[in-house]
């Protein structure tokens, strides 16, 4: 069965958004060029406005796509750890502060990659950025036991800040130590599960 025009257009749109999600984490908001995103997605610059009203509209969708990626990674870790006794909180912390995010900026949480730039964006992009921050705090809160839920913002700040500091040190023993120390500290303070080994 041949793909319909609408399904091809949807596939094209998704490829452009995925390329932009990769670009915002790698180069920041300011480093996202419409021409480069379209080229990376395999299309010409001229086709951009058939899919998006503006560059800001693309950035909003790219941020949403990048946020879904890290949520999917946390869910993947949770599935792998199912039956081990690991809590949702442990899975989230281990997924968010994974060593694999030290050597590459294009993966991992977009908030950690973009936080310093968020206040400087247009109202639409800033609003979408704020929504993603609230979403991350809510995701952290949902994994915590009731007695610790008031600490969700503090824990979220620790996750984001730790990933930023570790990346500043690079994929080095020092960078990995920053991630490891925070993982251990957060789990010691807030995790109530006792995973099987």
Automatic annotation (TrEMBL):
Keywords: DNA-binding, Transcription, Transcription regulation. Coiled coil: none annotated. One of its GO terms (molecular function) is DNA binding. Residues 10-70 form the HTH tetR-type domain. It comes from the Bacteria. Residues 33-52 bind DNA. This is HTH tetR-type domain-containing protein. It comes from Ralstonia holmesii.
